[in-house]
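Example 9 (inverse folding). The structure is encoded as follows.
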């Protein structure tokens, strides 16, 4: 298959991100068939169909993020149906490029596709980097909605100085917050100091005192029972880390600590931007693989 052979995209399942993704692909002069959006009456020039039609009549198929649920059904929040791919659909997918999020989980649900051309757009660096911005903005929106004070003048701590942590720290600093960043690497501490943030070592984090808002970005159990026992009760904790997360929410509830799990923020807070990011990543993969 060549890049020029891809004329029609099937977009199967997903939330508002996939709707903006579909519109953006359509605006780039491709045909788009939406499958698994039964709750919608129309989408302008976009074709609404069932999942089978979207798969059979397309040249490439894009699944949502996450692509499958724990029961192996496709993630279709705009449909009341439990969509599980049948043999006809998986057979049809064998002959075309398939774009998914969390490839291993998808193939575990549909092992018949292990030899298919399945690409994980969520694992690409550009996807993660571009998603860091809407995630950081969504985290700040979450803080504004739950914290009774203002971000300006508040004492904020960010655990982790990866893609999200870097952008989040910059945004909070721009809003005149007092920013402390927890990290482990010497190079990170150098950047943190150069950028004017306070710093703490994550490995020696034994208590959290004097902070209004804490953002965790590390996908490991940082805020366990012991640390939560030594955290101010009036501190808002926002966990941005992917599941299983970095906060013991059962212990937080026991200690009356205000902790919130904030997942999939790009899809909730900036679906248009998130859809564009998926398109950019998918098109980059096509450019690399199908020259």
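The amino acid assigned to each position is listed next.
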């Amino acid at each position: 298959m060549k890049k020029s052979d891809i004329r029609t995209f099937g977009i199967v399942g997903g939330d508002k991100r996939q709707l903006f993704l579909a519109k953006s692909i359509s605006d780039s002069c491709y045909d788009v068939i939406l499958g698994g959006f039964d709750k919608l009456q129309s989408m302008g020039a976009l074709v609404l169909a069932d999942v089978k039609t979207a798969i059979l009549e397309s040249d490439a198929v894009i699944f949502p993020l996450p692509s499958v649920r724990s029961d192996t059904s496709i993630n279709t929040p705009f449909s009341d149906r439990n969509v599980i791919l049948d043999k006809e659909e998986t057979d049809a997918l064998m002959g075309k490029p398939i774009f998914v999020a969390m490839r291993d989980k998808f193939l575990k649900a549909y092992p018949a596709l292990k030899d298919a051309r399945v690409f994980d757009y969520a694992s690409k660096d550009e996807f993660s980097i571009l998603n860091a911005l809407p995630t950081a903005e969504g985290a700040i929106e979450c803080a504004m909605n739950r914290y009774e004070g203002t971000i300006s003048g508040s004492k904020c701590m960010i655990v982790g100085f990866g893609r999200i942590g870097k952008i989040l720290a910059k945004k909070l600093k721009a809003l005149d917050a007092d920013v402390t960043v927890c990290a482990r690497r010497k190079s990170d501490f150098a950047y943190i100091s150069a950028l004017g943030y306070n710093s703490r070592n994550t490995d020696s984090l034994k208590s959290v005192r004097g902070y209004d808002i804490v953002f965790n970005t590390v996908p490991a159990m940082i805020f366990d029972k012991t640390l939560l026992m030594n955290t101010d009760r009036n501190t808002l904790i926002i966990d941005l880390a992917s599941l299983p997360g970095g906060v013991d929410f059962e212990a937080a509830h026991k200690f009356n600590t205000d902790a919130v799990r904030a997942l999939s923020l790009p899809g909730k807070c900036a679906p248009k931007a998130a859809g564009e990011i998926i398109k950019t990543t998918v098109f980059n993969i096509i450019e690399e693989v199908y020259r």
